[in-house]
Structures are given as C-alpha cells and as structure tokens.
Amino acid sequence: MCGIVGYTGHEQAAPILLDGLSKLEYRGYDSAGLAIEGKENIEVVKAKGRLRVLEEMTDNGNALSGTCGIGHTRWATHGVPSVVNAHPHCNKKKTIAVVHNGIIENYQSLKEHLIKKGYEFESETDTEVIAHLLDRYYEGEPLEAITKVMVRLNGSYALGILFEDHPGKVFAVRKDSPMIVGSAPEGNFIASDVPAILKYTRTVYFVNNMEIVCMEADNISFYNLDKEQIEKESTTIAWDAEAAEKGGYEHFMLKEIYEQPKAVQDTLSPRIKDGQIVLEELGMTEEEIKKLRRIYMIGCGSAYHVCISARYVLEKLTKIPVEVDLASEFRYRDPILEENSLVIVISQSGETADSIAALKEAKRKGVRVLGIVNVVGSSIAREADSVLYTWAGPEISVATTKAYSTQLAACYLIGIYFAKIRQNISDELYEKLVEELTKLPEKIQRVLGDKERIQWFANKFAASKDIFFIGRGLDYGTSMEGSLKLKEISYIHSEAYAAGELKHGTISLIEKGILVVGVATQPELYEKMISNMVEVKSRGAFLMGLTTYGNYSMEDTANFTVYVPKTESYFTTSLAVIPLQLFAYYVAIARGLDVDKPRNLAKSVTVE
Ligand code: G6P
C-alpha cells in the first residue's frame, strides 16, 4: 500500500531515494515519483509504471541534484495509476510537496471545502487534499501547519513533506500507517519499512501515532501534537543489507523458499533450551496458561491460513477450544470474547490494517493479545500485550513463504508449551514432539531437494484454467495456502476444498483433464482422502497426490505423486506446503509472470 522514503544529508538524494524505493516496491508498483529540493525550488519527477521507468527518466537519479528529497512508490487506491495521480503531490505554487501512504477517509469533504476556498485539484487522489491543506495553514512555520492539518484528517497516513523555504529539512508524521526513521553519518532517512534503509544504517527510530519528525542532515527532532519536543531511543536492527538482496537467486520468492530451513531454525532454536521449550516472551504465568478457556486466532491472507492449520494443532495438544477469524471479519462482528481467553494475531509485517484493528477490538474488550510478528517494532508488535517474533528476516516477495513457515513454527511452540503446562501430554510425548520439532529444518531442506520434478510438472500444467486443491484436517489448511500461492502469482483460478465437502457441490466443476491436487499426510484421514481423490478421478480429473514417504499406494490413484518426509502429524503442513510453493513459483515462471510483484497485490496492506 505505497512505500515512502525521505532523505536529507551530505550525498545526492535522488539515487538514495530510488534505491530505497526499489526495496519498497513490494508495497506498490503502479507508479512512482520523487521531489528533490534543488537550488531554487522543489523539482518533482513522476512516472507511471514500475520504478525502472522513473530510474530511466532520471538517469538513476543522477540527473537530479540536491541532497534532500522524498520519494514514493504507489499502489493505487483513489484514482487510476497515472502520472497525474502519482505522488508527490504539491500545492499550486509547488512550494510544498507531499508523499503519502494510507487513506484519507474524509478527503471528499475536505476537497469540497478547499474548492470553495479557491483551491484547484489536478488529481483524483485523496493525498492532494493534504498538499492544499498544508498550503492553507502554512505561514512559515511547518510544525504549526502540519499539526493543524493532522487534526483535520480522518483515516490513516504516513507522510513525508518538503517545504521549499525550509531547505535541507524533511518533515514526517504518521497515524496508523508504518514509518521509521533511520540515522547514519551520511544523512538521515524516513521509510515505510526497514529494508529501504538497511544499506545505509541499522540505527532506527520507531515513530508512534501522531508524532512528528523533523530531519536535517545531522539532526533528528521528534514532536508531539502539541509541538513539544519528545525524546526517543533508537533501536539497532539485526537484519543486514544482504538479507534484503536477491543474493544470486532469480527472484526473491525462490530465495525466500530456500531460506525456509534457516528461518524455521532461527525461530525455533532460541526457544528450545536443553530439550525444553522456553517461552518467557509470552509474559504469561503458568497459572494464566492453566486458566485459559479459549484461544482466538486472527490473521489475513497466508497468516489466516496459518491460523487454520494451527487450530488443529493447538486444539489437539492443549484441549483449549480455538476459534479462527479473518481479521477483516473479526473487527466488525462484535465478537463475544470469553474471560480468560487469549487472542493471537499473526502478521508478517505487523502493519496490516485489518489485523491491527482486530487487535484493538480484542484489547478494547479486555482480552490479552499475543502478536506473532516478523517485523521488529511494527505496530502489532508494539500494541500487543506480548510478542513472539518470527525470525524470518526481511521478506520481500509479495507472496509469503518463509514468514508463513516461521509462523507455523511459532504456533507449534505455543501448542506444545501450553500442553505441557496444562498437563495435556505425557513427558514422553513432549520429548518426542520437541525432538521432532528440531528436525523440521533439515526435513524442509530435503523437500527442497525435489524441486526438479515439481518444476517439470508445473511446466506441464502451466496453461491450466482451473486447479483445485483438496485435503482434510491439517491438509485442508495446507491446501488453502497452496491454492492461494498459485492464484496470487500465476493468475490461474484455483480453489481449495475440504475434501469431504466436494460432493456437496464442487464436484460439478470437475471436468476432464482438470488438475486436482490431493494433500494426504494425515494417517487417520489417508484412506478417506484416497476415496475423495478416486471420486474426482472418475470424473476425469488429473491427480497430483501429495503425501508422506511410505504411502506408496498413492500411486495407484494419483497420476503424479510427490512425497515429503514423515514427521509428527501435527507438523506436516510445514513439509507439505513446500512442494506447493515450488509448484506455484514454477507455474508463474512458465507463464512468464513477474513472480515477486504480482498484479494488483501488495505485500503490506495498510488500508482496509
Ligand atoms: C497481503 C499479502 C499476503 C499476506 C497478507 C497478510 O495480502 O499479499 O501475502 O499474507 O497481506 O499480511 P501480514 O503482513 O499481516 O502477514
């Protein structure tokens, strides 16, 4: 949902801003723009399309002189992708320039008000009202104008602002949209996300809602809405710049698929000490864990699919009833939350608007919230009562892979940890589960070794119009994620069905030659799955079977079979999802698509 950057320092700004934007393109990529403080005025350059168009127009930024500027990569909400709608937006005199991430909900009424005052609008965006509003209230004092504008805006925003008569200064504010500030000897930065500035610094300040930033080359000041200066502590980010680069892989998605053994290992190992799961991070006493009566698991997209799979694991292990919700539904359904319950919000970015709103809803109702989050210092990480970080490192590809896998791993830890404290499982089973958990990274690595066969098979079905995924229990959760991966990046229509539900309607969609992927890793459901697969096969489907080594009878039914190593049945999603990620990746490649930046999507959805 748009990426913003800003820089002021001792170097030429435009190349730095473009480099930062290239790390944020996952947030939006339909148009981009820069505003640079030149010698006399603010120079604005905008382009429709991918960032490379803007790079070409500006000779990679070298054509724009000036050491202070702001930049934007857009994911259109208000108005089509076009040069006019691209950011930065300016006042008429072009003395104020603004980049914006978020949505101004009351922009229509503000626009009408401004038009009555004689302001003219060029674009269809909500952002342009901010530029004109700043103009209206600006009398030479940026903080004064910014705070007056802030109290008039409803909705979400992270803003980067330049005032021509304050050369060398970048102003920034945020409300419900992400924004960080980075500090380095060569200058200071603002950005929507950490990877944009990692090349220059790992010293970061997290900006809170309704705080204002004023940056100069060698100084950063923070203010509250009353224009009082506030002190902030910096944080050192553990990620390194290399982790946010492709490192020889053709796409971030493939690199991230291959990083899964390490990401899962990094998420598990700090929490397993001498064969014991240690989760002090949850901040819950044994008494509180024993008293738990219900768990609510909430997420969007793939994080929601983690919730679906985790429900099977957590309910079985802890005997605590688990409810799963899409964050966008939870936030508006006025949920009845039981006393002594726990809400778990799962999010890679920690900035997904619906997930943040769900978290707030839970807190408003007095229920404890645990965040499972990848981005340190993100909104969900800060607003939850406690946070269990997934240590996946920066995930750049829009389609998530390694973050998904680490979220699953985090849920296994919680499940086993709670089960032990609540005495739901024997010591033997506990030991067995912990031991098996430690073997997961190596087993994921083994699955990755099978990539050539999956690549071959993906090429064969790359021209498909529809592909179905079926599974029962945990395998249904895995199917949902496999199907989402495929549709996100290959644009092939795909659906996941609980295999037992097929005969209640969906089976009418099965035609000769349609690919159906049957996921069957659960021993107790294996035979049932085979029956469901036979049902679709006899209606002409082409069957891919996905099961564990040993289940060789799958080959009697499936036309093509993929095996994953055996593990405790609780953990099979972690292995079975890997071939499905690879399948989606290779189908998209065979179709010649931009895997890392699929159309219409954005990685971090900071709007409703
Ligand atoms: C977007 C992405 C999905 C992601 C979802 C939730 O829709 O395209 O891949 O699963 O947001 O993101 P989060 O950062 O909250 O995990």
CA radius of gyration: 25 Å
Mean of all residue-level pLDDT scores: 94
Helix content: 25-40%
Task: Give the biggest sheet.
Answer: 8 strands, antiparallel
What is the top-level CATH class of the largest domain?
A: Alpha Beta
Q: Within the CATH hierarchy, at the fold level, what is the topology of the largest domain?
A: Glutamine Phosphoribosylpyrophosphate, subunit 1, domain 1
Poorly predicted regions are none
User: How many DSSP H or I helices?
Assistant: 19
Description:
The radius of gyration is 25 Å and the shape is globular. Helices cover 35% and strands 24% of the residues. The protein has an eight-stranded antiparallel sheet, with helices on one face. Strands 5-6-7-8-12-13-14 form a seven-stranded antiparallel sheet. Strands 19-18-20-21-22 form a five-stranded parallel sheet, sandwiched between helices. The chain contains 19 helices and 27 strands. The model has no long low-confidence stretch (mean pLDDT 94). It has three domains: 3-244, 4-Layer Sandwich (Glutamine Phosphoribosylpyrophosphate, subunit 1, domain 1), CATH 3.60.20.10; 247-448, 3-Layer(aba) Sandwich (Rossmann fold), CATH 3.40.50.10490; 450-608, Glucose-6-phosphate isomerase like protein, domain 1 (Rossmann fold), CATH 3.40.50. It is α/β, with parallel strands linked by helices. Strand 13 and strand 14 form a beta hairpin.
